[in-house]
Automatic annotation (TrEMBL):
GO molecular function: oxo-acid-lyase activity
Domain of life of the native organism: Bacteria
Signal peptide: none
InterPro entries: ICL/PEPM, Pyrv/PenolPyrv_kinase-like_dom, Pyrv_kinase-like_dom_sf
Organism: Paraburkholderia phytofirmans (strain DSM 17436 / LMG 22146 / PsJN)
Entries under Pfam families matching the protein: PEP_mutase (PF13714)
CDD domains named among the record's database cross-references: ICL_PEPM (cd00377)
Protein name: Putative carboxyvinyl-carboxyphosphonate phosphorylmutase
């Protein structure tokens, strides 16, 4: 474990101990990761939906494998300096798989891992048809996850999808069980009202994550409002790739309709800045230093 990885995890854990909410954008490819990393966020969130979509062109429905995802974790974390929580779905199998996944994500540089209690194959949060495994099975997964990490600062984020199918009371019961099992952060997915957010906030005394999905089930409140309700981390997993998808469609529409981008130049990220973001100045300096 490098000092850099350890310092990222220590910084994130210490940040959650404060009474100020952290906002984390969803990253899904290396361009989004590098842009977010350059902006001063205290945490980034590797979104499963966006990563699977951008990497495989598939829905986030349990189709991506551990190998697919740990590959992305290594690339994202290796190319950024901001602590990152990375989606690991259900752990990609049984208890032995969970142990392997935790070790792999930790070695790949993640500051935390998100594990959920859905049946396999899982489905994306805020979508219909999600079913959960028995609470005792998830408790065992969390215990194994906590035991398998080599760094105690590596954050175990336990997510329950029980609210949508079984109601808030069952989701709260599961949250309590997961915290006792060793989860560092609780993620009650898809609360459907401000009252439910209030109930979640006053029920637990551990860091709480809230998932803000534009067009999803959970009310979109300002970070300070969420902070007052008791939440420590607000993630915005879909915002980036939804914005990118719209921008791409509009730009490609310009090319299709006008066979030109002259009228759309102002809507583009400057090419010179993209070169800098991707590290071309270092390449050019290397070439100058080793020129014949």
């Amino acid at each position: 474990m490098s000092v850099t990885q350890q310092s990222k995890r220590q910084a994130l854990k210490a940040r959650f101990a404060r009474n100020e909410i952290v906002t984390a954008p969803g990253i899904f490819d290396m361009i989004s990761a590098k842009i977010a990393d350059s902006m001063g966020f205290e945490c980034l969130y590797m979104t499963g939906f966006g990563t699977v979509a951008s990497y495989l062109g598939l829905p986030d429905a349990g189709l991506a494998t551990y190998t697919d995802m740990v590959n992305r974790v290594a690339a994202f974390c290796g190319g950024t300096n901001t602590p990152m929580i990375c989606d690991a779905d259900t752990g990609y199998g049984g208890l032995l798989n969970v142990a392997h996944t935790v070790r792999g994500y930790e070695q790949a540089g993640a500051a935390g891992i998100q594990l959920e209690d859905q049946e396999f194959p899982k489905k994306c949060g805020h979508t219909p048809g999600r079913r959960v495994i028995p609470v005792d099975d998830m408790v065992r997964k969390i215990k194994v996850a906590a035991e398998s990490r080599s760094d105690r600062d590596f954050q175990i984020v336990a997510r329950t999808d029980a609210r949508t199918s079984l109601g808030l009371d069952e989701a709260l019961r599961r949250g309590e069980a997961y915290a006792k099992a060793g989860a560092d952060v609780l993620f009650i997915e898809s609360p459907e009202s401000i009252e439910e957010l209030e109930t979640i906030g006053r029920t637990f005394n551990v860091p709480l994550l809230v998932n803000i999905v534009e067009g999803g089930r959970t009310p979109q409140l300002a970070p300070r409002e969420l902070e007052k309700l008791g939440f420590s981390l607000a993630i915005y997993p879909a915002s980036g790739f939804l914005a990118v998808a719209k921008a791409l469609k509009e730009m490609y529409g310009q090319i299709l309709a006008h066979r030109s981008t002259v009228a759309a130049v102002d809507a583009m990220y400057p090419f010179s800045e993209m070169c800098e973001l991707m590290g071309f100045p270092e390449v050019w300096a290397f070439d100058r230093a080793h020129a014949d």
